[in-house]
Every structure is written in structure tokens, then in C-alpha cells.
Amino acid sequence: MKPVLALVGRPNVGKSTLFNRLTKSRDAIVADFAGLTRDRHYGQGHLGAREYIVIDTGGFEPTAESGIYKEMAKQTRQAVAEADAVVFIVDARAGLSAQDHDIANYLRRLGKPCLLVANKAEGMTEGAQLAEFYELGLGAVVPVSAAHGQGVRGMLELALDALPLPAAEDEEAAEDDGSIRLAVAGRPNVGKSTLINTWLGEERLVAFDLPGTTRDAIRVPFERGGQKYSLIDTAGLRRKGKVFEAIEKFSVVKTLQAIESAHVVLLLLDATQGVTDQDAHIAGFILEAGRAVVLAVNKWDAVDAYRREWVQRDIEARLGFLKFANIHYISAQKRQGLGPVWKSITQAHQAAMRKLPTPQLTRVLQEAVQFQTPKRSGMYRPKLRYAHQGGMNPPIIVVHGNSLEGVTEVYKRYLEGRFRKAFDLVGTPLRIEMKTAHNPYADKDA
């Protein structure tokens, strides 16, 4: 599992600027709960080969008792609970404040790894200007400038070095025994735990009629038709005696980690709610992670014909980027429509792990070019010569040729359609990379 860093601090200390720096301005995953004014933002980054998840939070006021600041504090506490380490950001220019002391007291009580970072420290030395922050009792102060990138890499190395390296034994064991890791993902209260309980034929996971009943992702071994599975419920098991409100239980981090560790993701939607922003964010992350996916619309028995047609149009409009995935309309509670879901899961996994021989790939490529040639780009027309497989889960097809930088996205989608049809790649993303041959005369003088 990737380590998780939470950025915490009072308002206007540069948390979002540092977040953008750490994630290289990639789009954030947003936990959008109704009624919350300031949400947590989730993004991914990497330092060399080490990858991590970073959470951006709003201004933190631990003692806030009402209004927007109470909601923002609730968001921040959830981010800290999900994180493996906390990056506490203070303002080197504005100096120490009473609010900084409140936050430091809160973090010390948690006992979680914490790195104290003084932002906006461009041009400052580690002398008298930063000495006052040692009052917080959180150890050494790390000066950075998020806006200019100064000291950010060193700060990140310190934060990651304080954490143990992620263990991969469980994943390797799952791969060795031939099991398929299946993650059931979706927003709170769509019926994830109910579906898995129905599959298992027992109350293995606790299911309440409340959103966000469970929090940690858990794995349940399961076998069907001779095939072993490792079911990953992104909500997870939780004792009945500890039921809190949804914002304190639904873990976006666990969902993201479960998606990345899975072979296939079953994205569960709620027919009574349609496709929400949260559904679209999760679907976008599945696509970005390159995971095979099957869509299932739960509670199909609870809606009438008009609502069903509306839901189908909503899926086409908002989840059109997953049009390669099979869609099933089910009722987990009444055990309706579950059989075909397993067929799609198997089909998606086979497609994601399929070996694509170079001769067949090249033949399909040449047939596609013969049917429709790419548009001319500048003085030259791209020449696509041959293709080979560059990876699996998701399948990656590398196309070689000349002047391939001129191949348009429209033509790449055309090629994707031809490859999908030829190799029956249903339920998995497909990535096409263009590799232009080096011109040996490019560096020579005329």
C-alpha cells in the first residue's frame, strides 16, 4: 500500500500550494459530501520509485465548535486519521500563532509521525527566524518554499523515510496462488457490503442502513467455479457498537489503495441516486490506475421504468469514458442479476492479462492504416510500421514508426477501437504509446 501524507495547518500557510507541488498539479480526487463547505483533496505523487498519496485539508482550528470552521476541523481530523504521517505546515513569514500551538497539542496527543515544516522560508536561514517554532515541541523545523520548490524534495524524503516501506507479501501471495483480486468500490450506502455478504452466503461483513458504516478495506478469500478470488471490500468490517456519522467513517484513501492493489474493480452505483460527482471521481481514478472494471447498478428493483431510463442516460453522459466496460443492473438484497456480473469480471480479468503477439498486433495495425491513414502533420505524414505489447494490466501497445508525434488523439482512439475488436479487449483500459524511430541524419549538418 502507498504511504499517505496529510497536510495540516491553519489557513493561508500554503498547504494547497505544497499539495500542487507534491502532486505536480495532477487533478485531485475530491471527497464531496453534501453540506460540507471545505472538502479534503486527494492526489498522488512519487519521489523516484517511491509513490505516495497526499491529502490537502482546509484551515484547521481544533477548538472550533460551530459553523464552517467546525466542519473544516472535522475534515482535517479524518485526513489525519487516514494518514500514515502528518506534515504540519506553519508560516515562516507570519511567525508562530496561538492556533499553531493548538494544532501542535492535538498532533502530539495522537502520537503519529509528524514533520514540522516552515513554509514561505525563501531566503531565510535556519537561525533566529525559525527558532520560535521549536516551542511547538515537534522536533526540528524544516524550511521550505512551496511556491518556488525550495527544500520540498528534502522535506519529502524526511517524511517518507520516517515510514516503514510498504510490504508486498500479501499481494505476492495472492498472485502466486492464482487468485483474482477483486475490489468492490463505490460511495457510501450503495450496498457494497451487502453484495459481498450475498456472494458469501453469510453475514461476513457488517451491513447497516447508514452511509459509511465501515472504514478499513479488508480482504475476504472466496472461490467460485474453481477460481479463487480475494474480495476487497473498500468499506470493511466495523463493530456495531461503533457507528459514527458518515464523514468520519468513509475512507477515500482505503478506496484508492484497494483499487490500485486489485486486478478488477467492480464499481457499484445506486439506481436511486444516479451517477454522483463522487461516482465520477472514483471511476476516473480507476481509469487512471489502469484497472479492469465492471459497472453494476444496485437497487434496480427499487426504481420504476422512468427512473431506469434516466439512470441509463446518466451513465452514458457522465461515465462515457468507461464505455469499454460491461454494465449490469442488479439487486444485491434480492440476489437478482448477479450471475452475469461474474462472467464480466472473468472476461475483464482475461482481457487485462491477455498476451498480444507482435505479428498479430502488427497485422491489425497495418489493416487499420490501410483502411484509414493518419492525417498529415506539417511536412510529413506519420508512418506506423509495427506494434508490440509493452505491458499488461492494463494492456499497453507500443507503435513504432516515423513522425509519430503528429498522430492525433482522434486517430489513437480509432486504433484503440480496432485493437479492442481484434483481441476482444472488453472491460479493461487500453493504452497506446507512440515511439518514433531516431533519424540518424537529424544531428548532421546539411
From TrEMBL:
Signal peptide, first to last residue: none
Binding site for GTP 1: 9-16, 56-60, 119-122
GO MF term set: hydrolase activity
Stretches of the chain forming a coiled coil according to its record: none
Keyword terms of this UniProt record: GTP-binding, Hydrolase, Nucleotide-binding, Repeat, Ribosome biogenesis
Domain (EngA-type G): residue spans on this chain: 3-167, 180-353
Alphabetical list of InterPro entries matching this protein: G_ENGA, GTP-bd, GTPase_Der, KH_dom-like, KH_dom-like_a/b, P-loop_NTPase, Small_GTP-bd
Residues that coordinate or bind GTP 2: 186-193, 233-237, 298-301
SUPFAM superfamilies: P-loop containing nucleoside triphosphate hydrolases
Pfam families hit by this protein: KH_dom-like, MMR_HSR1
Superkingdom in the source lineage: Bacteria
Cross-referenced PANTHER family: GTPASE DER
Family the UniProt entry places it in: Belongs to the TRAFAC class TrmE-Era-EngA-EngB-Septin-like GTPase superfamily. EngA (Der) GTPase family.
Subunit structure as annotated in this protein's UniProt entry: Associates with the 50S ribosomal subunit.
Function text: GTPase that plays an essential role in the late steps of ribosome biogenesis.
Protein name in the entry: GTPase Der
Gene source species: Ottowia pentelensis
Organism classification: Bacteria, Pseudomonadati, Pseudomonadota, Betaproteobacteria, Burkholderiales
